[in-house]
Design goal:
The chain is mainly beta and 269 residues long. The chain has 4 helices and 18 strands. α1 packs antiparallel against α2. The longest helix is centred in the N-terminal third of the chain and has 13 residues.
Length: 269
């Protein structure tokens, strides 16, 4: 099985994912097969999850039909590979049915061609079933602006309290030994905002985890946050935007190519 990434935007997305994944989890099992590449990683302490899905159609080219194969990889090794990429090259990922020890990654084209043989690990972990649930609130906003807010809040505290429903704005607040900071995100600065009528939302989350998620900001100009009371928040980067669809869609389709993060709320006893 061979997957190729050629387009500049997709290459940037691919490199962003696998350069930063080690900030969430130390190792992960990639599921590589005829459907594409999927992975799910759990952070230390089990507070957060990263989920990545790249279908076969997302890649610029693919050859072969490999039955799903589990490939255990150390995430920092993948990050080191991605740091060797040179602008203008294409990326190839190769895995064959008989291969049981190494994943092959190639950077070819501009500059020196490079080949990496990544030793596979035997990682004893099970894929978590993440159920679909009705969300209470959905917020889509500029990913760079959200990242700036998270980084600034972290100067003043370890946790952020997010409140919605008081009015049409979103409030993020933190406090610590040095003081406190409160941010009012105005409705006009939000791309999309939906809150169940008559409902309010309040949740507290660790800023260190959100900062790690924000390392993936380059994936998309916008990101979406989904909230459910007393449940993990979900941060979504949609990777389907490269598709050109001229037909009017009757309803918004769920992304099939994406990076998602889940973060458990902090519950103060």
């Amino acid at each position: 099985m061979i997957f190729e990434v050629k387009g500049k935007d997709k290459i940037n997305q691919f490199i962003t994912i696998f350069t930063n994944m080690h900030k969430i989890c130390t190792e992960t099992n990639l599921i590589i097969g005829k459907e594409g590449i999927y992975t799910q990683g759990l952070s230390m302490g089990n507070a957060s999850i990263i989920e990545v899905n790249l279908t076969r159609d997302w890649f610029d080219n693919s050859r072969g039909n490999l039955n799903d194969k589990l490939v255990g990889i150390h995430c920092e090794i993948l990050a080191n590979v991605m740091k060797c990429y040179q602008d203008g090259q294409i990326i190839k990922i190769s895995l064959f049915e008989e291969s049981s020890e190494r994943l092959l990654i190639y950077f070819e084209g501009n500059g020196h061609d490079k080949e990496f043989q990544i030793k596979m690990l035997d990682i004893d972990s099970q894929q978590l079933e993440i159920p679909e649930m009705e969300t209470l609130a959905d917020v889509t906003m500029n990913s760079i602006e959200f990242t700036k807010i998270v980084l600034q809040l972290k100067y003043f505290g370890e946790y952020v309290k997010i409140d919605m429903g008081e009015d049409d704005n979103i409030y993020m607040e933190t406090s610590g030994d040095v003081g406190n900071m409160k941010v009012r995100i105005k409705e006009k600065d939000i791309e999309e905002y939906a809150l169940e009528e008559g409902e309010t939302y309040s949740g507290t989350f660790m800023l260190q985890n959100l900062q790690s998620f924000c390392s993936f900001t380059k994936l998309n100009e916008v990101m979406t946050l989904h909230f459910i009371k007393d449940n993990p928040l979900c941060m979504l980067f949609n990777l389907d935007d490269w598709k050109q669809d001229d037909e009017e869609e009757e309803e918004e389709k769920k992304p099939v190519n994406y990076v998602k993060f889940y973060l458990a709320p902090f519950l103060d006893d």
